[in-house]
What does this fold into?
Amino acid sequence: MQRGSEPVDMRASRYHIATLKEAPADAEVVSHRLMLRAGMIKKLSAGIYTYMPMGLRVIRKVERIVREEMDRAGAIELTMPIVQPAELWQETGRFAKMGPELLRIKDRHERDFVIQPTSEEVVTDIARQELKSYKQLPKNFYQIQTKFRDERRPRFGLMRGREFIMKDAYSFDRDAEGAKRSYQIMAQAYRRIFDRFGLRYRAVAADSGAIGGDLSEEFQVIAATGEDAIVYCPTSDYAANLEKAEALPPAGPRPAPAQPMVKTPTPGRSTCAQVAELLGVPLARTVKSIVLATDELGERDEIAATRIWLLLLRGDHDMNEVKVGKLPGLERGWRFATEAEIVEHFGCRPGYLGPVGTRKAVTVVADREVAVMADWICGANEADFHLTGVNWGRDLPEPDLVADIRNVVAGDPSPDGKGVLAIERGIEVGHVFYLGTKYSRAMNATFLDEDGKPKPFEMGCYGIGITRLPAAAIEQNHDERGIIWPDAIAPFTVVICPIGYDRSEAVRDAAERLYAELLGAGVDVILDDRGERPGVMFADWELIGVPHRLTVGDKGLKEGVVEYQHRRDGAPTPVPLAEAASWVRARLQV
Amino acid sequence: MQRGSEPVDMRASRYHIATLKEAPADAEVVSHRLMLRAGMIKKLSAGIYTYMPMGLRVIRKVERIVREEMDRAGAIELTMPIVQPAELWQETGRFAKMGPELLRIKDRHERDFVIQPTSEEVVTDIARQELKSYKQLPKNFYQIQTKFRDERRPRFGLMRGREFIMKDAYSFDRDAEGAKRSYQIMAQAYRRIFDRFGLRYRAVAADSGAIGGDLSEEFQVIAATGEDAIVYCPTSDYAANLEKAEALPPAGPRPAPAQPMVKTPTPGRSTCAQVAELLGVPLARTVKSIVLATDELGERDEIAATRIWLLLLRGDHDMNEVKVGKLPGLERGWRFATEAEIVEHFGCRPGYLGPVGTRKAVTVVADREVAVMADWICGANEADFHLTGVNWGRDLPEPDLVADIRNVVAGDPSPDGKGVLAIERGIEVGHVFYLGTKYSRAMNATFLDEDGKPKPFEMGCYGIGITRLPAAAIEQNHDERGIIWPDAIAPFTVVICPIGYDRSEAVRDAAERLYAELLGAGVDVILDDRGERPGVMFADWELIGVPHRLTVGDKGLKEGVVEYQHRRDGAPTPVPLAEAASWVRARLQV
It folds into this structure.
């Protein structure tokens, strides 16, 4: 038996319970409002919060679950410094490349440092010093550590703070195959972690950037208020984020032209929606024009040439910038064209642009959907005029490029061919990512392989937003009275509410006995011994969101019962006092 | 049963064990060298270390003990931000007053922030917002959090780093009496904490600065290499640090003069030791002169007047600056006099100074010991000359002030009158301190007392150097082979060393069974399955300092035994294989 492992006496009178009737006006989202009102966090500065006792209990439970599953998956915990020397960040170029969200500081000797937003550089530096041989691989190092990102506009409390806690893990492997195995081990560990949190979530395929392949997944907690759109197929296990989800080529062929091309006056109608309304046609008959530019740099980094691109999307579709950024010719960066460039190439200002009869040559990229349209409507490159009945081949050449450049919409066919797509909203709280050799090559981090030759590590990185998770949990689980925590991450699992603790000896005795019994059984229980009126007491615990409540009152005790109520229950259930402890324990999910 | 509470499989082959034969040359102290060699820490920048897996395990055990005892003592954990806005630090004046060890930074909006070295300002800000009524008191908030102090000369590894982890607690009370109670609760909790660490330590009275009283104690881990001198009485429970320990007034009266005062040539002898040697007398017969100055400032902060002080100490005694700083007239700050000031007042350069016949008036402060001396020796205020046979009253006036201004030495009487003092060395790893209303008044942090009037909080602060403690433990517990951890904070409590794990099935089977048995019993055990040669394997674990080792070899197995060896044992003890697990468990102290 380890000393110190006895349960800690938890009485509301000695703990710090500080609920608020109102949240400050600048708290825009429900999780922010409820965490402030429940006394879980306290603002110190924009995006910088103290984790108050009640909130820290939640964070610690999140940490513990993450730590246990990372350990179980064979990852090894260490702690890298918060203040990191700029030299390492210069090796990868991130010191210069990252924007002001990277907080740069100088020490007393005017040496440059950063406050870590992540630790790729430091962990790669450790690996190149410590992992000399293939025999030491694979290795996965993780930390649960404070991070700082100097957001331009921190908001939503812990959802988008500047100072936050993240679990970041980094795997090191001999080869891509090993790295993919390490990636899968982490992806599985993440599923166990999110299962244990007791939240509804989806692991969705995410864009893996320049590396390609499918080795990037986001773990999204489902919430109507989420910032991210999640695409999934209800009849299969397909799930991806909006950036990633592919819009399949339309099934049918392009219909034959049925209408002549006609220049139609559309005075003051500069958007597809306005034009469709004026002409009385569905929005899906219109085509929107988006003009991009790419610059070729000369020897002295001056702009040597600029190419103008015309992207065509159906009027009811949105451009997907990630997909656009992967088109041949656009992979190295693009920008929206300036108005001067547009006028120069189209002879017209934005609002009435189209691919027919441009003044100068532009590269035309048609979305897959647009490429099979007939008799469509687009701008006439003349202010206040559109063209109707436009047809590929007849009125203009076939597009230079046909590609998937739009966001999918609900009802689109699922890329796996097993149904149609639905969209819901989520909050990203985890990400697993195959990095390849991006950092190891930049930092010359190699090991000696079996053949005696140095090779760069194949890496992966794996993050969980420890302090963001409670906020996401609340966005998913709350009602008008407050938070509803899943058992696993509740600040307390059970609260005992005696009515008249300060007046009735019978109530006090029964409550104390029940409390001692649950505490002794290892249940995370708090006894509200403050002697507050029932209304105030219940409102506090409903706001704080403790999932299980036992109410002890004189009235019930006369009949030998106490009342059990789950935070989601509409009404209490009477339970015999003698069975109350085991009754509650049977209802706990942890 | 909680999910995830199963023990984690710990095999050396999958863990990260990275011992070094040699430590870098800049590692000056044994704990720094051994932590680097054992792979517990890794330097990232001066005074900034990664806590490597093996070291982090120790730190986590230290944290857990501290957290359990703080919780048990009723302190409430929260986490305050690392990046703190300057405004709060300006309220107490510390933003301007603290030197460059306070790391100041600007965010993207050019607003001033600091990286917390401690959190008095933030916690007092929380208290003034959250603790409105005397009914909410007492409260004690603590955190275990990363701190930063931009030391000019960081060194000794975790002993004096720039980034480090500290447990800092802050108590809030209605009145001084309550604050003293909170202080005592913390002092007791600290004793439990340090008892559990399994280290030899002393709680010593420390100077409490301007507040007075005895409400400041340091917790010192005893180590010959410690920076601090600890004064204690072997026959009583008196213990204090050197700054604080009082030198009692000498018991006997001043003897009558026996010698005439004589001006004696002491060419080139400018120190007491040289003079005593030349004259063939004990050093204790000489008196050293130390000249201080205090400046009185005028209305525009210009120096309006300067007063010169002559401090007289026995030649074999050292000045105690803390005691000097409390003398009337010196409490508001003093400095050593410049050579010009000395020449102006004494007519002589340093080396031959004394209180007899100064050129200008100086305030003479005699140490208690000097005040009862007769026939003493001091400088003649003339180069190359000293006076012998000097006597108070006869040769010069009685001193303006007699006071305790020296460090005690071994053999001095104990201030509690119960024996004589001894001195040993220690490393400060904890401090409990009664703050009074210093911060609450500066920040106008008040609560409404029972009488309806606002009163400032009475505060205390309580620190433990979480990352310094492992270093102190090593300074106390090591030998030529490496570290010797106490059970409570060892990275692993037990290591199983199979000889020929990769060759012998019998060894592998026995080792695996023993491992599974200990793991199942909740013992913190690691199995060295690397298949290293015994010499390498033993050297690794002796360097790392795991206290209990079980060696499994073919030779022993033939007789049904394995070998147990404590890290301090000179030789192994054979133990029957079947009893080995319970045999080890009986020897564990945790």
